[in-house]
Amino acid sequence: MGLDHSVRAADVDELVEPGEAPPAAAERLARLKAGATVEWDALSVGCDTLVVHQGEVLGKPGSEREAIEMVARLAGDEHTVYTGIAVANPDRIESAVESTRVWFRSLDPDECAQYVAMGESMDKAGAYGIQGFGAAIVERIEGDYFNVMGLPIQLLLVLFRRFGYRYAFGNVVKLKKTP
Hints:
alpha+beta, Maf protein, five-stranded antiparallel sheet, 5 helices, 7 strands, 26% strand, elongated
């Protein structure tokens, strides 16, 4: 988006609480991340993405073997991606959740292993990245492509407006108040 920004890791435990619905968990975690990195002179943006397949949350894989198993589970089936996004300043936090349905094409075990060997699985919920080689395993989506990447841009722009800012193609500018 061309915005001047800095990246700060938030020290947040990304576990879903027992009984917590995935959309609520994604939003809670995004709020924690945005709040943990807020500064006086800037807006802080926090996101958390959860992949849910047949009612189970698939987090980031802990090993290549686990990544291969995740991709194999998703192959030939659909799942839902939830991304919680939060924008914060020192006075408040605004947040929302985006959801997108994703269908993988059928894959044989060798294709699952070959995909994971490309190296983009380990830091991603569900062990895939739609913006990379994972584009070849996604058959279709229903919803926001950028949500599957982990940053629902249109929802981010809505949250910027709640703080009185708008996106100006490479900049975020303060909206003028009308009398």
